[in-house]
Amino acid sequence: MSHPIDHTPEAIEPGRRQFVTGAAAVAAVTAASLATPSHAAEDKTRPAPYTIPELAPQWQGLDLAKILKYPAAFLSVSQNNSLYKPWGAQAAEKQWERPSLPATVKVAQAARKAGNFKTFAWIGYEVFREDYPQSEFDRAQYASWIKGYEGWPADKKAKDNDLVDELKALTKSGDLHFNELALQTAFVGTELPLHLSRNGIKTVIITGIHTDWCIEGNARAARDHGYLPIVIGDATATQKLGDESIAFQRINSFFAPVISSDTFVKLLQA
User: Fold this and answer.
1) Which residue, 33, 82, 155, 171, has most beta carbons within 10 Å?
2) How many H helices and E strands in the chain?
3) What is the 3-state secondary structure (H, E, C) of 192-219?
4) CA-to-CA distance for 38 and 58, rounded, in angstroms?
5) Is residue 242's pLDDT more than 70?
6) Is the torsion defined by CA of 251, 55, 94, 123 positive or negative?
7) Is the Cβ–Cβ distance between 222 and 256 less than 8 Å?
8) For the chain, where are the E strands, in sequence order?
9) 116-167: per-residue pLDDT in tens?
10) How far is CA 184 from the centre of its chain?
11) What's the CA gap between 28 and 16, in Å, rounded?
12) pLDDT tier at 50, thresholds 50, 70, 90
């Protein structure tokens, strides 16, 4: 999702055994995987992963491999050109230099192969919201997002909100494509809740931007709607580099397990 544009450069913080059956064993392996940097960190040609926290105590007894076999949905939030292209309205964040996009590609590809993912939702978050119903707070906040970009033509605004090419290549007929309409969640005012209900979804996998706003907001909303959300930490990003750790800790402590893309793939294959 979209924060006010930040122009402050900051430095990013860089950040096996086979799975066996049983909740305790799976939780133990998951915790070990989360605490250990992935091999991607050793590959200097790829972005370094964020440090994913150890699973909070309440999640450690869960059989996450089993939970990932339930009827599931994959949600990609705000992974659009605005954030991943140098010409985008939010290009100052330089999200293309961070690991969220390749990690999301990995997760989406694994979910496609799994067979139990019934919903793939590619959820946009428009920065340009002139046609949205707006409260006084909304008018002030939305105007701050596009300061200096007010003169963009309609076609460029539409392209700014378009799904980034790497993810567009993974879409299929029948996928959901819509914009968030609320400030921080796709569960208000969209087709998502009804679609998930009609498909019998239980588990919701969340990727996208920003970790401390729309990702946390959707994890909270998913819990409140009775789903089992899991956030893929390295497939998300905050606006400001270095804010990921506290966002992960807050989500992981209260709302949903936070795991890495590598752990997701391993659990899915367990």
Assistant:
1) 82
2) 11, 6
3) HHHHHHHCCCCEEEEEEECHHHHHHHHH
4) 24
5) yes
6) negative
7) yes
8) 72-77, 117-124, 176-179, 203-209, 228-237, 258-259
9) 999 999 999 999 999 999 999 999 999 999 999 999 999 999 999 999 999 9
10) 12
11) 11
12) confident
Q: Which residues contact 256 (CB under 8 A, 6 or more apart)?
A: 206, 219, 222, 223, 229, 230, 231
Note whether 222 and 251 are within 8 A (CB): no
**Which percentage of the chain shows pLDDT scores above 90?**
80
Q: Which of 24, 139, 118, 13 is nearest to 70 (CA)?
A: 118
**Angle formed at CA 211 by CA 150 and CA 94, multiple of 5 degrees:** 55
| Joined tokens for residue 29 | 């392996």
Q: How far is CA 159 from CA 131, 175, 187, in A?
A: 16, 19, 24
Distance CA 53, CA 247 (A): 10
Helix crossing, 23-35 with 261-269: angle to 10°? 150
In contact, 29 and 55? CB cutoff 8 Å: no
Strands 72-77 and 117-124: parallel
Length of the chain: 270
* Full-model pTM: 0.84
Taking the C-alpha atoms of residue 178 and residue 186, their distance in angstroms, rounded to an integer, is 9
- Does the bond joining 7 to the residue before it have cis omega, within 30 degrees of 0? no
Instruction: Give all strands of the β-sheet with 72-77 in edge-to-edge order.
Output: 176-179, 117-124, 72-77, 203-209, 228-237, 258-259
